[in-house]
């Protein structure tokens, strides 16, 4: 997640999720659940990276927060508001979840007891034109099996049946510019990075040339042009 102030935004999300906070280098704030031993399918990480680029459009990638009941939802919304989140109207209409933005304007949803076994993050949501195409690519890219498919959405989840869902939601909104929030993939310990990169290309990923950038990871775009990173195994 790009951030104007990675430390401040990281502090918000650490308190919102009850996660631990660290920093691997200046301009990067890392969040992870307490006690997590990598790799663990029960959770994901969030990394916030400092960027001077302003947020100008609705994010195509956002997270949904889980609650266990309507009362829990109301309590969480109140606590997030105290932390600096703001209720948001993105044209959702009369829905049972609450749409909010974090202190830098990134959209997220607080669900109403639809999920109670995922941890604090219920789902990572990607807006897309064709959920089925995205499902085929990302299921093979992550080795996550299909959980559910409808005309307007497609959902994946870890084969272990734990942790957040990954959902592709049909939307008419076009993609404009680089995504402010994106996915990172990290191969398992012992995997070959180049072999993983070739696998992604064979599935339909395209390389994004970052010549001149001092980065140690590979950057790709999925079949709908959403940027993502392939990190080194660890």
TrEMBL record:
Q: Which PROSITE patterns match?
A: VOC
The VOC domain covers 120-233
**Stretches that traverse the bilayer:** none
Could you tell me what this protein is called? Answer: VOC family protein
Q: Which source organism does the UniProt entry give? A: Luedemannella helvata
């Amino acid at each position: 997640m790009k951030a104007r102030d990675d430390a401040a935004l990281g502090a918000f999300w650490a308190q919102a999720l009850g996660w631990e906070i660290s920093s691997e280098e200046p301009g990067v704030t890392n969040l992870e659940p307490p006690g997590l031993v990598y790799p663990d399918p029960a959770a994901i990480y969030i990394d916030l990276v400092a960027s001077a680029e302003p947020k100008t459009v609705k994010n195509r990638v956002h997270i949904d927060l889980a609650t266990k009941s309507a009362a829990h939802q109301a309590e969480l919304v109140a606590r997030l508001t105290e932390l600096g989140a703001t209720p948001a109207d993105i044209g959702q209409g009369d829905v049972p979840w609450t749409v909010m933005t974090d202190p830098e304007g990134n959209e997220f949803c607080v669900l109403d007891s639809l999920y109670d076994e995922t941890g604090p993050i219920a789902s990572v949501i990607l807006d897309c034109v064709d959920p089925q195409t995205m499902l085929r690519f990302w299921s093979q890219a992550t080795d996550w099996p299909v959980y559910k498919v409808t005309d307007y959405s497609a959902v994946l989840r870890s084969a272990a049946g734990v942790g957040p869902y990954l959902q592709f939601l049909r939307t008419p909104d076009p993609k404009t510019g680089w995504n402010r929030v994106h996915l990172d993939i990290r191969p398992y310990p012992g995997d070959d990075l180049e072999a993983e990169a070739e696998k992604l290309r064979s599935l339909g990923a395209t390389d994004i040339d970052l010549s001149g950038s001092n980065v140690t990871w590979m950057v790709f775009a999925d079949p709908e042009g959403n940027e993502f990173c392939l990190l080194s195994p660890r």
